[in-house]
Amino acid sequence: MTTGGTFISARALSQSFHDEIIRPLLAEIPYAAGLLGWGSDVLGYDTARSMDHDWGPRLHVFVDAYEVDRVTHAIEGALPSEYRGHAVRYGSDTVVPVHRITVTTVDAWLKEHLGVLNGRDLSLEDWLVTPQQQLLGVVAGAVYADDGRLQVVRDELRWYPDDLWLWMLGCQWSRIEQEEAFVQRTSEVGDELGSRVVAARLTRDLMRLTLLMERTYAPYTKWLGTAFTRLGHPDGLDRDLEQALAAGTLAERERALTTAYRKVAVRHNDLELTEPVDPEPRRYHDRPAMVLGAGRFVQACLAAVKHLRVQELGLIGAIDQFADNTDLLSNPAAYRKLINIFEK
Length: 344
Known about the structure:
Blueprint: H1 10-25, E1 32-35, H2 40-43, E2 59-62, H3 68-78, E3 82-83, E4 86-87, E5 101-104, H4 106-113, H5 124-129, H6 132-139, E6 142-146, H7 151-156, H8 162-179, H9 182-188, H10 192-213, H11 224-230, H12 237-246, H13 250-271, E7 282-283, E8 290-291, H14 295-304, H15 308-311, H16 319-322, H17 326-329, H18 332-335, H19 339-342
Parallel strand pairs: 2-5
Antiparallel strand pairs: 1-2, 1-6, 3-4, 7-8
Helix pairs in contact: 8-10, 8-14, 9-10, 10-11, 10-13, 12-13
């Protein structure tokens, strides 16, 4: 806990650390600074529980390349060993003592964090292989000072280009189309566990689809539900999805899911990105399964895409839509190797 025994978010703690310790040291130097990168604290999701591992004031300080060494030395010389009861330094004379304060350039950090040369001119392939959590690390963190160098990048990375967004919506609808009939079919053969698993997969895909619709990057799994909940759901979509997961029978499960399908379909039409699509659920061909018929939304999205290169991508989806491995999604060196999947 903090010295006073009351939890304070890392965002607030880092803000005061910047204002009291860092800002006075850099008064004459153009720079930007913020709590960015990986971590629950960057997203503002940290709680008192977060304080039990590597928690405390943390900053990235961005300066021009020729200023990195000078600023690093200036900060090292003035950095306290702790701040409000939290360690700031570590190591010995043979180890760089700055633990939580990183001094670098914007481009060097983006190369390390995203794997791109800069954040102002991403190619289509760059967008496709960069995980949403990594993009959140750039655009969602708190900024405490900025001479403009950081804002231009955050503006550029705030969200996908329109045609790519449309295509990703189509790919997400496609995931639902591929499995929506399986909730009934698995139950029909006595596989209730399988039916529940499919319902859970569809619930997760609907949550991610909703975040896409709201132009909100999805965080990694631990915080997906939190991000979804914080969107606010006046139509009760969150309750429908909870009921789908809690349902003890196929009838209850299917009723909750089809209610959710309809609400998400209405939201799709409200975006006015495509031609309107009938949001009412229907039978799956001549089988007893009730589905949305999500393929209709896939086709509506694809029909609205104008960029020829995006039209040629098929329906594999961007990296978060086809990969679910932490060691891949958190490692730029690993996920950048996937670029050749999309290159012609």
